[in-house]
Amino acid sequence: MVTTQKQNDAFVAKYLKRNIVVQLTQGLFGQTGFRLFAAPTFLPVYLYSLSGSEFVVGLARSLEAVGQMLTPMVGASLIGHRKKLLGITLTSSILMRLQMLFIALTGLFFGSTDFGLWLIIFFMVLLGIMQGISVVMMNSLRAKVIPVHRRGFVAGWRNFLSNGATAIIAYFAGGYLIDNNILGDGYAALFLLAFFIASLGIIAFTFTKEPVGLELRKRENIQQSFKSLKPLFRTNPHFSRFFLVTVLGSIGRMAMPFYILFAGTRMELSGAMLGLLTTIWMLSGTVTNLLWGEIADRKGYRIVMVITLAMWILAHCQLLMIQEVYGVMVFFVVFGIAFSGFNQARMNMVLELGADADIPLRVAASNMASNTVGAVGPLLGGLIVLAMGYEIIFIICIFVQTIALIVMLSSVPEPRLSEIKITEDNDVI
Fold first, then answer.
1. What is the pLDDT of residues 362-398, one digit of tens each?
2. Does the record's keyword annotation contain Transmembrane helix (predicted)?
């Protein structure tokens, strides 16, 4: 039984290679399946084909993000006091994947009906709820088993493997499953494939070797976890400003469901073209994820977040000027690099901005902020499209993300240099 920090470090070092292999395998299958499902191409186009409305597409994405917005604190309250996280993390991950299965089955049996459309949206909400819980648990467990100086390597290779696999599958799936309407609904067949791939990641995850937690918070219910945010923000100003950057930077999620719909005004969107654009989006971030991981292990994640946020802004600027298919492809290249790197930096930098005991709370707060924007943004974006057109959404994103970049550059230091280790003593046991 691990009882001291020295023993904890020895345990982590002993099983580090095993846990790295587990993390990479889980990323290869788990992330591949989920990214295939959540790509900003297949699901928005499928929803649009069922509804014929940009507003419904935005509404569906917003409702999904509402679930993600409300539940990270549930995840934090469930694990903050636990010495072991693996069991409950597996449970939440399985429940999340089941929603993907239900969406696929709904598409197969009811997809062409209004009932099927709203049932799909219902399961998207449940997916968001379970995802909000699961991500907090997954990241907190990863922080326990992977030391900070190896997280860049693990994150980079996880994304490299999953992006590469997703790109290959998306290319062939788009050209075969959708265009040939496999199982009577090519999109539903694609989502069913995504579920089976994601489920393989859970099997790999069971082989994790987890140390006993040393720094724990008192057992808290959801209300108490929310109340803990105020002292966290008060005593940790660096995290507070990072939280603001997360909110402002994530405004790009408002536009994501509409990238592919806007592209449809410049080109014809066949299943093969959707597969190609998804492949371009995935591949563009695949190789650069290794670069971001290497930079992060050497210099920290702050510089990665700065570079990728700036690239996301440039991608929106370029999107405003596209007139043909090649411009759309260039956009998905730049956006793929930026979005993948930004999320990698956001999800890893938050682990370093304070004491280990507060990791679940910080992850929950950061994800809640990003998902709040994801909940409100697409719905607002749908209304903006109906009233003023696609271009206004992209202009808003450019303006707000520029503010986020300025705050990041001026007010958020690199945590590995500032040695931030702040928590409220009366919340730790």
1. 888 887 887 777 777 777 877 888 888 888 888 999 9
2. yes
Residues in the chain, overall count: 429
Q: Assess if residue 428 is contained within a domain.
A: no
Q: Which residues contact 9 (CB under 8 A, 6 or more apart)?
A: 147
Which alpha helices (DSSP H) does 320-389 contain, by range?
325-349, 359-388
Which residue in the block uniquely carries the two structure tokens 């993300």?
Answer: 401
Residue 389 Ramachandran class (φ > 0 left, ψ -120 to 50 alpha, else beta): left
Per-residue DSSP letters for 289-321?
HHHHHHHHHHH-SHHHHHHHHHHHHHHHHHHTT
Residue 80 belongs to a domain:
yes
Q: Which amino acid is at 280?
A: I
Domain of 299, in residue numbers: 5-423
In 256-301, which residue ranges form alpha helices assigned H by DSSP? 256-263, 271-299
Spatial neighbors of 361 by CB under 8 A, at least 6 apart, are: 76, 80, 217, 225, 228, 229, 232
pTM above 0.70, yes or no: yes
Q: Which residues sit opposite 428 in a β-bridge? A: 217
Distance of alpha carbon 309 from its chain centroid, rounded? 15
Task: With respect to residue 429, please indicate whether it lies within any of the assigned structural domains.
Answer: no
